[in-house]
Amino acid sequence: MNFFFSLLLTFHQAALESFGSSAVLSPRLSFADAFAAVQHNETDYAVIPFENSTNGSVVQTLDLLADRDGLYSDVVVCGEYYLTVHHCLLTRKNAVPSADGSYRFITKLYSHPQAWGQCERFLSKHFKNVERQDVSSTSKAAEIVSAEETGHSAAIASRFAAEYHGADILAANIEDRADNTTRFLIVKNIRSKRTGCAHRTSDAMDMEESQTARWKTLISFMINHSSPGALADALLIFKAHGMNLTSINSRPSRIRAWQYIFFVECERVPGVHDDDVMERILEGLRKVTESCRNLGSWKDRLIHEV
């Protein structure tokens, strides 16, 4: 069976490792394009970066999940994948380096904003005063540099991107930490006929894991900021049901200044929590928040794949 995905080329590797080489991939130019493709059932799944172990949350993804304009009401999270990320310094094929072997011939760098923070030590040492240009993905950076005529620009991207775009690697593994890892979320349309979230594991293994796997759920909500203790009241709902919170994020609501949308990721443990615990949590949140939404549940892959 073939599966169709929407993803940026940067995350091609995550999709292949998550779903297998038989998957049919459909690239999109931006995170928003990927979400729209899922919302309109143009693809079954999208693979989107959510957070990095070195540089934190990917705010573009949080903003799409916030869905302030109601464009992605049917998009929910159904899975996750952890990918160890190694960055390289790339130039176009056969670029002429400096005579002394330094990087002085490079006058401009391209990469995704997340990559700068993951390679800050290397960049501070070799490119302190070199212009940095943000682009939509590290793969886009490799594409730009591979087509650049002067050979005086470079990209921060993966070895996978270098091979895909035919670029030369000047330096490998330039990330600050060897354990630099990005967590990707797999999203689907809640109204899709597909049940669950496809994954490369066999059905038998998937069924066995279902009996013991921890499950994560992502919930967003807004509170009355003028009410003292409103956020505490919301978080106490999770505590009252014995839920472990694995992450908390916030983004501006854009409804009014200094109001925020909160994202809480919590963990359900088989044998400890009932299957309907999330419904009871949402029922409690509706009483103490201005709005709340269940953004999906999925198996915790951290203990299996890292």
Question: Would you mind describing this structure in some detail?
Answer:
The protein has 306 residues and is of the alpha/beta class. The protein has three domains: 1-84 and 180-191, D-Maltodextrin-Binding Protein, domain 2; 87-171, Periplasmic binding protein-like II (D-Maltodextrin-Binding Protein, domain 2), CATH 3.40.190.10; 204-306, Alpha-Beta Plaits. It is built from eleven helices and 15 strands. Strand 1 (4-7), helix 1 and strand 2 (24-27) form a beta-alpha-beta unit. Helix 9 packs antiparallel against helix 10.
Key terms:
306 residues, alpha/beta, D-Maltodextrin-Binding Protein, domain 2, Alpha-Beta Plaits, 11 helices
Distance between the termini: 27 Å
Q: Overall 3D geometry? A: elongated
CATH H-level name of the largest domain... which superfamily?
Answer: ACT domain
Q: Given this structure, which CATH class of the largest domain is correct?
A: Alpha Beta
Q: Which architecture name of the largest domain does CATH use?
A: 2-Layer Sandwich
Count of extended strands: 15
CATH topology of the largest domain: Alpha-Beta Plaits
Query: Taking Cα atoms only, what radius of gyration do you get, to the nearest Å?
Result: 21 Å
Helical segment tally? 11
What is the helix/strand order? EHEHEEHEEEHHEHEHEEHEHEEHEH
What is the strand content? Answer: 25-35%
Structural class comes to alpha/beta
